[in-house]
Model the fold of this input.
Amino acid sequence: MTSPTALPSEVAKFDALAGEWWDPRGPMAPLHQMNPLRCRWIAGRLAAAHGRQGENLRGLTVLDVGCGAGLASEQLARYGAAVTGLDAAGAALGAARAHAAASGLDIEYRDGMPEDLVAEDRRFDAVVALEVIEHVEDRPAFLRALAALTRPGGIVFLSTLNRTARSFLFAKLGAEYVLRLLPRGTHQWSMFVTPAELTREARAAGLRLAAISGMAPGLPSQGWRATSDVAVNYIVALTRD
Done:
């Protein structure tokens, strides 16, 4: 499998974790912990863009690129969105379909890559790619595909990791080798993306930065919180021209 928007080695890495994806104490525990914040942040801004209060996404179409086993897809569907989940990891998609069916959620899961849906001329009110772009070999091509899948005036939401000394210390060494929060080799620090790089490459793809926020773990009873500090984890909203 070759694609400008997917590395086979990265797809295989996450496909191998399919059976553990929904275990909140398993290797995907950090995603479980940050998922409520990511989805609230996305839903609030998408709802507001359509003149709505709170996190009401009823009737809006959302594409979740690199959806894995569906953590974000399910939460966005619970907010009322018509969600399509897209991933090249077949085993992870199997877990996603099974979990959605058991949860009574109607989510369309597709096996493939963004360029496959571009070829079908699909368009969505919002396109979401969470913790995905740092695993992509050709970021400009990936961003162009996301832009092509977004309706004019729609929003692309991305969350990722900044390439800083702090992210190397905490997100790479700390998370993978010291605290063992993630399997070793989950991330390559050299593929982390600075906000300046992401903004510049997004602009070239026809996407304009509308909002940015850092994400940081809080107390166990509070979960992750939004912050102005983008040195490690951050999330952006990009508006399509």
Remarks:
- The radius of gyration is 16 Å.
